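User: Some background: our group keeps a shared notebook of sequences we're curious about, and every so often someone picks one and asks for a predicted structure to add to the entry. Today it's my turn. The entry only has the sequence so far, pasted here. Could you supply the structure so I can complete it?
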Amino acid sequence: MKPVKSLSHIGIAVRAIESQRAFYEDVLGGTFEGIEEVPSQHVRVAFFKIGDVRIELLQATDPQSPLARFIDKRGEGLHHLAFVVDDLCQRIDQIKRIGLTMIDTVPRPGADQMDVAFIHPNSCGGVLTELCQSRTE
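Assistant: Of course. Here's the predicted structure to add to the notebook entry:
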């Protein structure tokens, strides 16, 4: 299997983006890149650039969404790691062939002009893992 291209971002689940924004800008010195709503996933996301790393704050827009349930169960904190791949459909097929469990068996629209698919944490040592590919490439 071809290596991933890079780390895209680290996803952090929060109850409210506004209540966390100052920490990522003022304390960590991150550059705020904007807020985007992803209706299909029932989230608002805010991106911050900190050095070579991007942080994605995720806020649920629906109390019944998977993110809202995650926060209710585990509280705010690390939600996922996201990696850029060349061919998302091919990567999904490869992962399924080796016996890992995909949450998404076909790519879906994500934030930041990316198509995304998640690998179940049970297949990744307990870490929810997002694979993403730019829609503009």
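Suggested note for the entry: The radius of gyration is 15 Å. The helical segments are 17-27, 66-74, 88-97.
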